[in-house]
Amino acid sequence: MTKIDLLSLRIDEIEDLLEKMGEKKFRGKQIFQWVNKGIKQFDDMTNIGKTLRENLQQNTFITHIKVEKKMVSKIDGTTKYLFILEDKNVIEAVVMKYKHGLTACISSQVGCTMGCSFCASTIGGLVRNLRAGEMMDQILQMQQDLGERISNIVLMGSGEPLHNYKEVIKFLEIVNSEEGLNIGNRHITLSTCGLVPEIRDLADLEIPINLAISLHAPNDEIRQKMMPIAKKYTIKDLMGACKYYLQKTNRRLTFEYALVKEVNDEEVHAKQLGQLLKGLLCYVNLIPVNIVTKGKFQKPREDQVKRFQKVLKMQGVEATIRREMGADINAACGQLRNNYLSKEMEK
């Protein structure tokens, strides 16, 4: 029998598992509470009998990822973690400090298959999806290390969350549970490069999370050069899914727009983007592109970024400029993992 990861299960799933094991169903909530507190050893579950603990030991396990490297920004306190998974794969996550609390940016996959040309996460392609428990343990390990509660989560680290749809939805259910971390859906943001069918599926669930769309271009010609997914789903397809999401949830959308010098940062591009988004319940998050090793894109000048923002606002589209966090520790997703893998290959 293949052992089952308890940290990847909802309460009802643990209860069903216990019934199959011939155990009492009501213990499911207790076990869920223990693993969501970060307990890794069955013997530490002090209100669970010895026989049940031994049964759990034989049939289940609790995901336990470990910190391989930790970097703390001297500029703003941003903390970046490189985690080693139980199969020796590596992922990374970041905790950012704001006035409203700690925000964790976590990974949903080992690597990424989307191939966006400006993103470090996609270098080397996709290795595998993460289980819900491996996403959960990123939060638990960072909370334990920092000694503070994480109040906001961003699924914007390595990987495309909607490409790992089933486990990501499971993660959202677990992390939102009142018996666990109880992080409200409105404090969770999921970022996608635009998987149209999955956006529609997510809309049908009507989970009140925040959805961020990685748009990065005002037209198909530019977007297809930057993002391979744009060859499968046009901007028209994507905007149709976004409007459906708004119709089902009435939750304001965020459109992520990585500004790349002399690619998508001109005034004409801002005007096209404004026309595309005008009238939608949304805002644009402008992101001066990170300089990626092996990448070919350059960051635009600060005045060019502000001009782009001004043109959008003149068309009635709200736009903000993302403040760079952890600049001195390469806090953008994918960079730490790629540096680690490069050094491992050199050994």
From TrEMBL:
Cofactor note: Binds 1 [4Fe-4S] cluster. The cluster is coordinated with 3 cysteines and an exchangeable S-adenosyl-L-methionine.
Annotated catalysed reactions: adenosine(37) in tRNA + 2 reduced [2Fe-2S]-[ferredoxin] + 2 S-adenosyl-L-methionine = 2-methyladenosine(37) in tRNA + 5'-deoxyadenosine + L-methionine + 2 oxidized [2Fe-2S]-[ferredoxin] + S-adenosyl-L-homocysteine; adenosine(2503) in 23S rRNA + 2 reduced [2Fe-2S]-[ferredoxin] + 2 S-adenosyl-L-methionine = 2-methyladenosine(2503) in 23S rRNA + 5'-deoxyadenosine + L-methionine + 2 oxidized [2Fe-2S]-[ferredoxin] + S-adenosyl-L-homocysteine
Cofactor: [4Fe-4S] cluster
GO biological process: rRNA base methylation; tRNA methylation
Binding site residues for [4Fe-4S] cluster: C112, C116, C119
A GO molecular function held by the record: tRNA (adenine(37)-C2)-methyltransferase activity
Places the protein is found: Cytoplasm
Protein residues bound to S-adenosyl-L-methionine: G159, E160, S191, S214, L215, H216, N290
This enzyme's EC code(s): 2.1.1.192
Span of domain Radical SAM core: 98-328
Active site feature: E92, C333
Positions of transmembrane segments: none
Note: Reaction proceeds by a ping-pong mechanism involving intermediate methylation of a conserved cysteine residue.
Family in the record: Belongs to the radical SAM superfamily. RlmN family.
Biological function: Specifically methylates position 2 of adenine 2503 in 23S rRNA and position 2 of adenine 37 in tRNAs.
UniProt-recorded name of the protein: Probable dual-specificity RNA methyltransferase RlmN
Organism of origin: Clostridium aceticum
Lineage: Bacteria, Bacillati, Bacillota, Clostridia, Eubacteriales
Gene name, Swiss-Prot/TrEMBL: rlmN
